[in-house]
Amino acid sequence: SSKSEVLRSKRLEAIVFNWLISDCLFQSLDTRARDLFRISNFGFGRGAHLGNTPLRCRDTSFRSIPVEENTKTYDSRFRPRALLLDGSICCDKIRPMTPEEKERNLHEFLRRYKSAVVAFSGGVDSSYLAYAANQEMGDAARAVTALSPSVSELQKNLVREFVAAFKLNHCFVDTAEMENPDYTANPTDRCYFCKSELFSRLGVLREEWGVDVIFDGSNADDVGDYRPGRKAAEEERVVSPLIEVGMTKEDIRHLSKKWGLPTWDLPAMPCLSSRLPYGVEVTPEKLRQVESAEQYLRSLGLEQFRVRHHEELARIEIDSSEMGKILDLKLFEQISRELKTFGYQYVTLDLEGFRSGSLNELLQIEK
Question: Contact at 8 Å (CB) between 106 and 133?
Fold first, then answer.
């Protein structure tokens, strides 16, 4: 009928108007805000995010809900799929997406591209992404791993094993962040200079290989956190598929275990430079000290720990669940003696145990 056609036309106009306004706003945001605002475009009602949680419709039928009814359901980061001219939102009942639903959306997203360079560190997130990209693109998905003094031998071996097991099209590439004084000065945004170097190298490879896009393994948990590397990704137009579909670390571990990926329960593996307090110069010698100390502690059966480098002092952080493994005076003496052979004068055990990003606590103290 003519009435239904007019209503359909009004809805279409409202949808287009909403997208135009939203996209103009998106372009005005900084990198961190853009990630919070990002919406996955997988059809009506399926890509909206509440914070980091993607929301979807239970079915494909839609009903208009007055805006005031939604104020208790959505926060300001939710962009309605259809804002109607009568002041209502076109949507239906919503629920958080399951990991399997997010995975289906991930593969739908990946199919937008015929080829990709995947920044592959060997960690939980990038391993899962490289695996998924390989499923969709085969050898057209090229996994690339950076080589520098800040990458441990353990990490390189994990990469080699994963590549061999899942037959990825892979290569290593040398990066030169250690030649950049902005990086070696170890400022609080050190990661920006590292990622900028990595993504610029990947950009060169993308042009050389004629590849569509560069992917990285950032996930939805990274959104809103202090991540200087995200700025570098934005500058180099790197796409983060796991963020696009709202995958969290928990989702990725769940799906990795489901598909038999050995990385599903892998502890976080930040670069060796992260063991040095901000402001302490990063040098290859210091990084070798840290790597040797951690390699020795790993040989004792420890899994979740860090050796924090405070020049002549090594501060050992061990997860509380593993602390009992080393609470022995003879073992204390053995550990101290061994770490001193790597150049440390003092060896201490942090009684608060392992805390990811614990060196950031020093920033709070200084403030």
Answer: no
